[in-house]
Model the fold of this input.
Amino acid sequence: MVETGEPELEGKGDERSGGRRSYRTLLLDGLRIEAPAVVAVLSGPAAERDASAAEGLGADLVEVRLDLVPGDPIGVIRRVREATQLPIIATNRIAEEGGAFRGGEGERIQILAEASAWADLVDVELLAGGRDRLMEAVGRPLIISYHDFGGMPSLEGTRSILAEIFDAGADIAKVALTPPTLKDCLGLLQLVHETERPLSLMGMGDLGKHLRAVAPVYGSVLTYGHIGAATAPGQIPVKALRELLDALLAEGR
Ligand SMILES: O=C1C[C@@](O)(C(=O)O)C[C@@H](O)[C@@H]1O
Done:
């Protein structure tokens, strides 16, 4: 686990980074993220080509879904590193949380650890058996994630999951949930607004997808969009997501 030590710098709603509005600056082991930030998810055979296009489409970071690229995942992330200057998140998603990796946990963690040499942040699931082993092996800022593709825990249950994620040593907590009602969406926005530590919250599904553009207004630090095929229900194309954020983020808050 990386000892960041660096304070987060609380920006103001009117701060701009390259013409974009930033609410807060995250300093993670020398990596500077002006939040809220758009992450372009790279998957499939066009991952390297999409990496080249990501910044022009409005992405601030890219995520390489090592479980969703053909061939050698290490070769792919190396080429993505050559294709873009944007910070890279390495993710090798377990099947239980919507991923396509089908090997053993030891192999999955090994690939992720090796790929981290070309990444700026690493994503690992809260419930992954190899989570702590990976965290010991990787000297990168960590996103610890939790996904529910069929619904969501209660709000108290979600608060407990966030506490577990931060207690486990996350630099950024990430939860992607499928809220069944608008009341659940309101509850999640309240949760984002009250959480001071860096949290990325996304809604999945038809009723939750608007949270991808709205939760950043309430403080969510990362929101994920796609360039090629969507990698989650309700995911929004990067260009449209960027335009939504630029339209919705407020001068002051
Ligand atoms: O965890 C996340 C969020 C995500 O599942 C989404 O809902 O956009 C997409 C994944 O690629 C990423 O790793």
Q: What stands out?
A: The CA atoms of residues 179 and 185 lie 6 Å apart. Helices lie at 47-54, 73-83, 105-115, 131-137, 155-167, 182-194, 211-214, 238-248.
